[in-house]
Specification:
Length: 393
């Protein structure tokens, strides 16, 4: 049985989602470890178009678990340890990123920083990130310390996706964490306020008055949070699903994450609306006068059907068209299709995805309950049978 869940997180007018696959089927067997970790090198780039088409490719896991005899991920322990193993395997295969979604009050990954730090200690090169952390639940000061520590452990590989949040398992779950909107503010505004405080703390400027009789000797001047990791501020992403919030993120100097859900602003296909959203983000970035080049990622559910296992899991009943739904009484959203086909067909389908073409990073949502071996197979299939033909590798 295949159950598809969506996680959503971003500003109230810019929701972020990535399709997550909860696949409870017998364990995938017989996978060989064919690929070896490889460096992707290029002796030259013929033109700017070649550079633009190359992609960083990562995976995105929600870390679902269920005590089902058909699930390879039975518990929270399984979800966490398998997440570490999957990141190690992804690096071996030559993947560029290991990303995790954060949900509270659910049988899914929650507090991200112990996991990110563990992955950072077990790997050497792969980017490590989130997509996304719900900022309504976060203490910006404590988060800045945790993020700094995880980034230092990984050697500066953290890529943190944050956002406003999503429809939840419980009513106003952030209240149980001790957070309340201030007067005149809703929960979305509180999430954005937390995000802006977090960004400011990551600049590393001193703000706290030192004690004249401290336990330990202080450096001169106002004190900042420690440990401080230089450069992390430029590796913060905002999960957005509207043109307006993409522009807001650009003005603040955040990178952009957009996924399999977007507010339906024009009635066009998801990939067309997302491509326009990305262009709006780039225009706002330019207008803000930022000097660095921003990062932009899109998430997709993509499965190359190579064998009978793939066809059994994803070859029948896959969602080949976008879907329209309502997130609340007034918010119409478009949910993106899945891609599941033989490689030659898949290549032609993906060539037409304008949002993937606009982005520099592609996150593959993975069915984590099928286990590490099968998900390694899924990633390797994309890297070897699809990515080269599209110029991503």
């Amino acid at each position: 049985m295949l159950a598809t869940g969506r996680g959503i997180g971003a500003p109230k007018d810019g929701l972020f989602s990535a399709r997550s696959h909860i696949l409870v089927t017998p364990a995938y067997q017989g996978l060989g470890r064919r690929a070896r970790c490889r460096e992707t090198t290029h002796s030259h780039i013929d033109d700017v178009g070649d550079l633009y088409s190359m992609k960083k490719i990562g995976f995105l896991s929600f870390g679902h678990w269920a005590p089902s005899p058909q699930s390879r991920t039975q518990s929270g322990t399984d979800a966490l340890l398998q997440s570490i193993d999957l990141a190690v395997e992804a690096e071996r295969l030559g993947m560029d990123g290991a990303y995790f979604r954060v949900h509270h009050f659910a049988h899914q990954l929650a507090s991200p920083f112990p996991l990110l730090a563990s992955v950072g200690a077990k790997t050497r090169k792969i980017e490590i990130g989130t997509a996304v952390i719900d900022m309504r639940y976060e203490n910006p000061h404590y988060m800045a310390e945790d993020a700094g520590a995880a980034d230092l452990i990984s050697g500066g590989r953290l890529q943190l996706g944050i956002s406003r949040g999503s429809p939840e398992q419980v009513i106003d779950g952030w209240r149980y964490f001790g957070y309340h909107p201030i007067e005149g503010e809703d929960d979305a505004g509180m999430g954005r306020r937390h995000a802006e405080e977090f960004l400011e703390l990551l600049r590393g400027k001193g703000f706290a008055q030192p004690n004249p009789r401290p336990m330990f000797t202080n450096p001169p001047g106002l004190l900042r949070l420690e440990p401080y990791s230089a450069g992390l501020r430029d590796r913060i992403w905002w999960g957005s699903a509207s043109n307006a919030t993409a522009a807001w993120a650009a003005k603040l100097g955040m990178n952009l994450q957009t996924s399999t859900l977007k507010f339906d602003e024009t009635g066009e296909s998801l990939h067309i609306q997302q491509a326009a959203q990305i262009r709006a983000f780039r225009a706002a970035w330019k207008d803000a006068g930022h000097t660095r080049t921003p990062r932009i990622s899109v998430s997709r559910s993509i499965f190359a059907l190579l064998d009978d296992h793939d066809r059994r899991y994803f070859g029948r009943g896959s969602q080949e068209e976008d879907k329209i739904g309502f997130l609340d009484e007034n918010t119409r959203a478009i949910f993106g299709r899945s891609y599941a086909a033989e490689p030659d067909i898949l290549i032609e389908q993906l060539r037409k995805d304008e949002a993937i073409e606009e982005a520099d990073t592609l996150l593959l949502t993975v069915p984590n309950q099928l286990g590490v071996a099968y998900n390694a197979h899924v990633m390797e299939a994309i890297l070897t049978t699809v990515a080269p033909a599209l110029g991503w590798r």
